[in-house]
Amino acid sequence: MRFFATVAVCLCCTLGFTQDCSHSLTGTVIDQHDSTALAGATLFAPDLGRAVFTDLDGNFTMEGLCQGRLVLVISHPICDTQQIEVVLPYSGDYILELEHHVEALEEVTVVGSSFTTKTESILENRIELESIEQFSHASFGDVLNTLSGVSSLNTGSTVVKPMINGLHSSRVTIINNGVRMQDQEWGAEHAPNIDVNTAGAITVIKGASALQYTGDAIGGVIISEPARIAAKDSIYGKTILSGATNGRGGSASSSLTLSRASGWFGTAQGTLKRFGDFEAPDYVLSNTGTYERDFSLRGGFNTYDQGVEGYYSFYKNDIGILRASHLGGAADLVEAIESPVPLIIEDFTYDIGTPRQEVTHHLGRVTAFKRFDHLGKLSLTYNLQHNQRFEYDVRRGDREDIPAVDLELTTHLLSLDLESKLGNDTKLKTGISGVLQDNFADPTTGVRRLIPDYDQYQFGVYGILDTKVNDNTWLEVGARFDHTHLDALKFYRTSFWEERGYDQEFADLVVEDFGTQVLTNPVLDYSNFSATAGVNYQFDEHHVLFANYALASRAPNPSELFSEGLHHGASRIELGDLRFGSEVGNKFSVTFQRKASKWNFSLNPYFNLIQDFIILEPTGVQQTIRGSFQVWEYRQTDATLAGVDFDLDGQITSRLLYRNKFSYVYGQDRDKETALINMPPPNVMNALEYSFPNFHNLSFRIQSDYVFEQKRYPDTNFEVFIPDTGETKTVDVSTPPDAYHLLELGASATFPMGANGSQFNVGLTVANALDTSYRNYLNRLRYYADDLGRNIILNLKFNY
Fold first, then answer.
1. Is 409 in contact with 184 (CB distance < 8 Å)?
2. pLDDT digits (tens, 9 = 90+) for 593-616
3. Strands across the sheet with 23-31, in order?
4. Is 63 helix (H, G, I), strand (E, B) or coil?
5. What is the CATH number of the domain that holds 678?
6. Do 193 and 262 lie in a common domain?
7. Nearest-angstrom CA–CA distance, 632 and 620
């Protein structure tokens, strides 16, 4: 018996000594949404009673492991815990993806311009939720103005069109909840049809490197993303109430979200804004009120492996245009521009008369995705947009309630995208998309249609490759091809058709000749190629360099091609050109960034060469039966845009924060060797914020904005004959206004509302605190009136 026991013990010892426990497991823990590293994650092996933690780059190593199956429990402070099983030995690095999310009621502390690196070769500027909520009462364009290099082309105070590094309209692509906005963005007075309260974050890419969205964004891409919804059982919401003294109005916005740990979720949101006439420091800006009402619904099912989501938004806005900008004869135009005050000033009212815009936008989107082993994440998306635009002119008699412009734009888009991992350090994005668009210009307005009926078909395909060259360097390359087919029906005045020489060059386009006008059928095709190449070099954990080259090409839009008549919303006659070809931009940009605990900065010089750049500029004045209007004509030239954006923020003390931003744009018409029109003047912002974090997060802020006088501008003045006096006068539409300085004051505090984590935040802002009279060079109505005077804004936010 003793012999058998001895043999058994020896066998067990032999087996134990022959088991191989020299294996190790290495890998990285990343966020499943954007593949960013998760530092401080815990990997626990319950069978062994051992745990390791990830470093700052998300890397981990567990050594001394035996051959066989190993159970690991992976956790992170703000992630869903996962359990996996690994079979050892395992070759290579193990990539672990966690569902990383921000808690729904957590207070966001990043404000203004923050620096993020979602794309590998170009720095992105991101506006977080707290900053967006401060602009709940304002427009989408207003919140973008907080970023360096981003300005706006304004029509008064309510139509705010984003401009990136001096470029706007069709050169800037706006993505709203994954959908490229199709809202007739070609018009200078067509603001984005987006409720700013639907955004959880807004990202600005100053260049054409986001090829998955478009290839024609010569200026850049603006991405509005909804707030991320955590996969947990919860119901939460928020309400923001705002009131403002200038315009004597306010807004109310509310949202409610229901989520389940199983992955189901739903959100409903709505906004109402109403303002009367706004005011300059010394007078009322008559007929400048606005009335906006919006709502959106979002819901679906989302897990790591698969998901489906539906989204619908409704946007409607009635916008008054300054009454003094629509005048009678040539003498009135000269007098208005020379007068220090508007020629028409009336008492304050909430009524919106003429001229005005009425815009309605419907957006619907359905998207689904599925992850496949060895293939990647495959996404299929369909969206439908319907945009209706009415523009009402000052018309006589009972025709004032009939729109002078009635445009209806319907867009369908279908896209298929694939995100694949070709290795631990290489990612590939590919996709294909198709667009069908129909524009209908109602002929019953009684006014010559500025934009004709047309059908437009677009096809696009792209590929983007990101690869890690070494521990310090990421490389990004991409390419995209787009084809556009445009089929239009356009009436031209016979005199204009012949004056432009179209009767000789485009005789085959004439469908029917009516004597005083001809009906034409232009059918145009454009093939555009875009590409990007860039590098991201990490010097150390605090310093990084981005270098990027982007080639972008853009087909001319319908306004640039077909405009021939009075654009009532812009209060001017616009003339396009059928001969236009595609714009081609070559942009070189470099960004040096420092990210540290106390002082951070970003320096971004850029250089953009654009061939066949399409510009719109004044050329004269024309008398019509509705009055005297400036004539603006489109033309193509070669252009150079260069400049620099600078951001700095620093913690002077534990309670005192300093921020600075500076932007400069140089625009040159290389053909005429003159400055480009409507380039933003140099501007600098300085701000100080003092906080008491232990006392209801109380903070006080003072901000100084200085806008320099634009010294570089073309001379586009023209002469007009005044019949009443028989003299000829020069109309100065070129000279920019003087430099100006604005001071802004602000304060905010947060209070708990119960044991469940609900919060109440109150904020007070005094814009233009010194009630300064000024005119903005990029405001199209600067010829007729000053900009806004002092505005006191009270903002109340309830998280529950």
1. yes
2. 998 878 999 999 999 999 999 999
3. 59-65, 23-31, 94-98
4. strand
5. 2.40.170.20
6. no
7. 7
